[in-house]
Amino acid sequence: MATYIQRLGLVLKNYSDGLGHLVFTNVCLHCNRELVREERYLCWICWQALERTYFELQKGPTKLDQLFWSRVKIEHTCALYFYGKGTVSQSLIRALKYDFKAPLGLYLGEHMAKVLDAHPIKNIDGIIPVPIHPKKKFARGYNQSELLARGLAKAWGVPVLKSLVRKRKNTASQTTNDRFGRWENVQNIFFATAQTGQYQHILIVDDVITTGATLESLANAIKAADPQVQISLLSFAFTK
Ligand SMILES: [Zn+2]
Fold first, then answer.
1. Cα radius of gyration rounded to whole Å, the chain
2. What global pTM score does this model have?
3. What range does the domain containing 235 cover?
């Protein structure tokens, strides 16, 4: 009961913080400068400072494509921005994850859809956001990847397949683990609840890709239920 009340308190705090931000301040999520009317979430300078990967324009395989070689077969991969310590993309992701910025998630999802509107990654039948544990979702109020997925889905007119894959257990924070440790940690963490059926090409959406271990595990869970299904990956950011 105590934990339930604590969680409820956290959710209310998140909601009121978000509301406070909406009503009282409108500052850049990276540099804190006050935004002018046409600026959203970031000031113009910080939007310009977001480092684009331009993976979608690259002819040969990208670093992101190579990350999954010999691990799991992926049709298309893309990430729009590089991610790193102190970068603007880190500020955006942090706001999305911890500051009750649900509209930001939808906004970034729609932004990704716009950039990739002519890319073959658009030719999908459904989108699966990387699931988070229900406890985490409850504490945060939402799943940040699902918000990105909803923004994309709205723009491209495809469904978000929320319940096709579930997370098996709540893993400890992975931020301190080394590369191998992370891989160990996420194996068999997801399971498919049904076959993909009419959805022959599925897009998995995440906020940041670092080792690719989570996505590999998720793709394998989907393929375990339906080996014929095609899978593509899209992330807002990619760790250099
Ligand atoms: Zn700024």
1. 18
2. 0.83
3. 52-239
